[in-house]
Amino acid sequence: MDNNDYHSLATPVPMSSANNVESAIPTENDRHPSLTTIRPRRLRRTPGLRRMVRENHLTVDDLIYPMFVMEGENQKVEIASMPGCYRYSLDLLLIEIAECWNLGICAIALFPVISETQKDDTGTESYNPEGLVQQTVKAIKQNIPEIVVITDVALDPFTSHGHDGLVDESGKILNDPTVEVLVKMAVSQAAAGADMVAPSDMMDGRIGAIRKALDAAGYIDTAILAYSAKYASAYYGPFRDALDSAPKFGDKKTYQMDAANAKEALKEVALDIAEGADIVMVKPALAYLDIICQVREATNLPVAAYNVSGEYAMIKAAGKLGWIDENRIILETLTRIKRAGADLILTYFAKEVALMLK
Predict the structure, then answer these.
(1) Is 267 annotated as catalytic?
(2) Which of 33, 137, 242, 315 could serve as a FRET partner for 309 with CA atoms 20 to 30 Å apart?
(3) Can you list the pairs that 249-252 forms with residues at least 24 positions away whose Cβ atoms lie under 8 Å?
(4) CB atoms < 10 A from the CB of 210, how many?
(5) What residue spans define the domains of the chain?
(6) Model confidence over 118-142: pLDDT tens digits?
(7) CA terminus-to-terminus distance, the chain
């Protein structure tokens, strides 16, 4: 090999395109152990080096903790399909929230367990100013005013049929009449002190209607976290066990999204942003990392992802059987969701992760 050959190997190669990157990689014809200069492993050699160049860092500030509240006193009931998750009566929920706050968790998402006697076909209990959600929000803000309280806006916990919307005689989900009820629900939650309302129903036009109603009622600072790309997923099963809110007939495929669609997700996100959403969300997370990535590229708004109950349950089940290193899988899973583009992650692992990261 003459001097010109050595010079050509040593000359820096511009890295502005995929072709340039490929041209910088030695081929079989010119590869020689002593001349290999491109060694990515150099920066993986020690834990310190790996930390220095790590691109994504999971922190407790990324986490929102979904929590379940029920009527009664001194009640803590484990959810069979979600080991380690509980339904709490308000008195014990406040204790649990205080522990979470002390661990650095700054936001919770509240979900109510409504008794059958309070359910009806139109979900009227959802906007009762003295209802379980409204009283819970007031108590939380009185006891731990700094924590961010996010309330769910959907009718399925409150309807006798278990759907997120009103239903006509033929079983059709009625969009616009449902939005009217959702508006009442959101305003009542804001009046109770919710920092953020989170419409999870997937009715058309509900973000704009809720934003307009909140502003008209004087709640201009109440934010909207929109479940913008919520898919009709089989991963929700344990959550419906937790709330006893599975639909009594049919399914939710006429309002939640088809799992095969990606372009539609961007359409839904764009509509919610135009209607006034402050944060957009993809649900579920783990099987929809491609959607999270595309949504992240499409907007500068914060992007949330929901690490849902089925994803949680699978990790817990495999961990219990000793098939996986549970803690490592939890951290890897949530970090990969963040790497895909999520700024915020709703996860039932929030308290465990806060303890790991402390």
Answers:
(1) no
(2) 137
(3) 249/161, 249/171, 250/163, 250/171, 252/163, 252/164, 252/202
(4) 27
(5) 3-52, 60-357
(6) 998 899 999 999 999 999 999 999 9
(7) 56
Q: What HEC string does 174-228 produce? A: EHHHHHHHHHHHHHHHHHHCCCEEEECCCCCCHHHHHHHHHHHCCCCCCEEEEEE
Nearest-angstrom CA–CA distance, 8 and 330: 47
CATH number of 60-357: 3.20.20.70
- With a CB cutoff of 8 Å and minimum separation 6, the contacts of 22 are none
Give the 3-state secondary structure of residue 306.
Answer: strand
Statement: the pTM of the whole predicted model exceeds 0.90: no
Q: How confident is the model at residue 63 (pLDDT cuts 50, 70, 90)?
A: very high
Residues 133, 138: Cα–Cα separation, whole Å: 9
Contact between residue 340 and residue 58 where contact means Cβ atoms under 8 Å apart: no
Q: Please write the tens of the pLDDT for every residue from 270-322.
A: 999 999 999 999 999 999 999 999 999 999 999 999 999 999 999 999 999 99
Catalytic residue from among 230, 252, 316, 338: 230
Q: Residue 198 is encoded by which pair of tokens?
A: 């989170």
